[in-house]
Write a structure and sequence with these properties.
The complex is a heterodimer. In chain A, helix 1 packs across helix 4 and helix 5 crosses helix 7. In chain A, strand 7 and strand 8 form a beta hairpin. The longest helix of chain A has 18 residues. Chain A contains seven helices and twelve strands. In chain B, helix 9 packs across helix 12. Chain B has 14 helices and 15 strands. In chain B, a hairpin with a 5-residue loop joins strand 8 and strand 9. Chain B folds into two domains: 102 residues, Roll (Ubiquitin-like (UB roll)), CATH 3.10.20; 312 residues, Creatine Kinase, Chain A, domain 2 (2-Layer Sandwich). By secondary structure, chain B is an alpha+beta fold. The chains are: A alpha/beta, B alpha+beta. The interface between A and B is large, with 29 and 42 residues.
Chain lengths: 226, 451
């Protein structure tokens, strides 16, 4: 797991040089499908999506990388100043972004930052956030040392959220990432489960899962500090 | 996914030291049935199911074809909060199958699944939020009328504290079992309480109603109190209903205003055509499904004028005498647009009741039924002639009448399937016969001396 997927197929010479100099292994692809097909068995280290020439194509790549069941691929988006508005309400599709043209040292720093976040999160056996501990090995969850009685789907939802703290997810994204199979109830199912989780976390911890009005839900504090 | 669910259950049982796993299912009359297995048997049960003799269960198999298979639905696995902490227990709902693996036609949960799948094939999900009423009484004594708890003149134990704490404890228990509560309050009648659950999909809700009835009783019994869902336990005061808030959502995975199939921004009441046709279907077939939504002799003593229970087949925006009410959603929230079906009582089998209600509504949608005019007057105050002129009919007045209407209903036959349809009619006719042959105190008092 040391290979980075890059979009589009012919990235700018600046990007290629920066990645090479920083010592990253990377490969460029023309489409979401091509990225999916070439995915290493142990997954991508991350993805860098350059949106300057093809915004729609870039979003397609982001969406496709976000759709799978594996842990999230850390994703850095490169956009021009004119494209900044496009980012609104799409927080869940990328982990960080960098303005084009970029300064090589800024890009390097950002890459280190996004990839580091994930290596912490992908620690295999436990997730720890505040007083909340999930043991991924034994499927047990506890808060302040008190075991939580969760149903399977409640556990899966909580696991997904705690593995991606600070990120906002729409109900649709949660459905496809956490449920992703036959279920009754549609997008309302997500609300039902969030409500149950909050009840079980108890009043003093219920705000660990925050409702982001007219968007969806977020676990823990926003990375942007609001 | 299935394998992960099983692993989750097995690991939890191991980690939490669960001693006993209770396999739950429901008979045709809506009674919760349970048998317990040890953790050692659980893995096998999750894979292959547990076979048992179905002829011992009301409405299940005939003797010659009696063995059926209970297959746990791992998604419904929860710890039982009232179990002894030293010997933890868990429960899981089961789907009943024939030995060849096909769904067993006598299992109400399978019946509901079949009806929900039908709606899903049309891209629709059926969501329900029930308001469940019940009474707390002192432990019943044979032949004595029930004694309410919180009216000192009836029963001298400390009053409101007992029931207030009971309700608080009940809600806590429900929440730990993944049944979120929306409101709870004391109802009009002495010792009557209401707990409103938040909406979920219909299958989940039917499981929740079964769990709810047990949880309320368990918590009460632990305090020496008897909780009852009998529809009309006390003469002269309100009975217990189970009003159902219903909506259909488009199952296209999106979450915008259009995902509530009952919502339309263009209508004065924000009701879509689908909602109106669904209501029309429900009204048109209301009498046919009443035996299922109100299945006891006692149910029909609740459906009388003057006690906020519906008597007539009508709808209105804000008129609690009608059969369907259209509540005004808070902040005109599209996803809260819904209709409230007011006749069912908490003694029904929720799987079957949800099945026939959905079937009736969907029939209206499929065949473009026309919604009759709103009846916003207080129907309880109108005479029969005036009601007749408006084309407003009455719901069946007795279990016997309800069964007669149900028997000729192809809609109910199709929704329930031959097995349950036939068995239910037979069983309930016999209940009615048993009732009919009673000589009641009413008759003795009225006739014995004077005739």
């Amino acid at each position: 797991m040391d290979l980075i997927a890059v979009f589009p197929e012919n990235p700018s010479p600046d990007l290629a040089r920066t990645l090479d100099l920083a010592g990253y292994r990377w490969k460029a692809f023309p489409s979401p499908d091509a990225i999916t097909k070439s995915e290493p068995t142990d997954g991508w280290l991350g993805a860098i999506v350059m949106a300057d020439t093809d915004m729609d194509g870039a979003w397609a790549v982001c969406r496709s990388l976000r759709k799978r069941d594996a842990l999230m691929v850390p994703l850095l988006l490169l956009v021009t100043g004119a494209q900044l508005d496009e980012l609104t309400l799409r927080d869940e599709l990328f982990d960080d972004f960098c303005l084009l043209p970029f300064h090589p040292r800024e890009l390097e720093a950002r890459l280190r930052h996004v990839f580091a976040r994930v290596s912490v999160n992908s620690k295999p056996d436990t997730v720890d956030y505040g007083g909340l501990v999930l043991n991924l090995e034994t499927y047990q969850a506890s808060i302040d040392g008190r075991p939580l009685d969760l149903t399977y789907m409640e556990y899966e939802l909580l696991k997904f959220l705690t593995q991606n703290p600070g990120k906002v997810f729409t109900r649709e994204i949660l459905l496809s990432r956490v449920w992703g199979y036959d279920y009754y109830g549609g997008a309302r199912t997500v609300d039902v489960h969030i409500r149950r989780l909050r009840a079980k976390l108890g009043e003093e911890h219920a705000n660990l899962i925050q409702t982001v009005r007219s968007v969806g839900y977020r676990f823990g504090q926003s990375r942007w500090g609001h | 996914m299935l394998q992960q669910q099983r692993d989750y259950v097995l690991r939890t049982v191991e980690e939490r030291g669960v001693r006993l796993i209770r396999l739950w299912f429901t008979d045709v009359l809506g009674n919760l049935k349970s048998f317990a297995i040890s953790p050692a048997e659980l893995e096998n049960a999750l894979e292959d199911g547990m076979s048992f003799d179905g002829s011992s269960i009301d409405g299940f198999s005939r003797v010659q074809e009696s063995d059926v298979l209970a297959i746990p639905d791992a998604n419904t696995f929860v710890m039982l909060p009232w179990a002894d902490g030293a010997a933890p227990e868990a429960r899981v709902f089961c789907d009943i199958h024939n030995l060849d693996g096909s769904p067993f036609s006598g299992d109400p949960r399978q019946v509901l699944r079949r009806n929900l799948d039908k709606a899903r094939a049309r891209g629709l999900d059926f969501l329900i939020a029930p308001d469940i009423e019940f009474f707390y009484f002192a432990p019943p004594e044979d032949g004595q009328p029930p004694r309410p708890l919180d009216e000192a003149s009836f029963f001298d134990l400390t009053t409101t504290d007992v029931t207030g704490n009971l309700r608080k404890e009940t809600i806590r228990t429900l929440e730990t079992m993944s049944i979120p509560v929306e409101y709870s309050f004391h109802e009009d009648a002495p010792s009557q309480h209401e707990i409103d659950l938040r909406h979920t999909d219909a299958l989940n809700m039917a499981d929740s109603v079964m769990t709810f009835r047990l949880a309320v009783r368990e918590v009460a019994a632990a305090q020496g109190v008897h909780a009852t869902f009998m529809p009309k336990p006390l003469e002269g005061v309100q009975g217990s209903g189970m009003h159902l808030h219903l909506s259909l959502f488009n199952n296209n995975g999106t979450d915008d205003a259009s995902s509530n199939a009952f919502y339309s921004a263009d209508d004065a009441y924000n009701l879509s055509d689908t909602a109106k046709k669904f209501m029309a279907g429900l009204l048109f077939h209301a009498s046919e499904i009443t035996a299922i939504t109100n299945q006891t002799v006692n149910s029909y003593k609740r459906l009388v004028p003057g006690f906020e229970a519906p008597v007539h087949v009508s709808w209105a925006r804000n008129n609690r005498s009608g059969l369907i009410r259209v509540p005004v959603p808070k902040r005109a929230n599209p996803s809260a647009t819904r209709i409230e079906y007011r006749s069912p009582d908490p003694a029904c089998n929720p799987y079957l009741a949800f099945s026939v209600i959905l079937a009736a509504g969907l029939r209206g949608v499929e065949q473009n039924y026309e919604l009759p005019a709103e009846a916003d007057a207080n129907l309880f105050e109108m005479g029969d002639a005036a009601l007749h002129k408006l084309g407003i009919e009455q719901l069946p007045q007795s279990l016997s009448e309800a069964l007669r209407v149900m028997e000729s209903s192809s809609l109910v036959h199709e929704a329930l399937g031959e097995h349950i349809f036939e068995w239910f009619l037979r069983n309930k006719r016999s209940e009615w016969r048993g009732y009919k042959t009673q000589v009641t105190p009413f008759e003795l008092q009225r006739y014995l001396k004077s005739i």
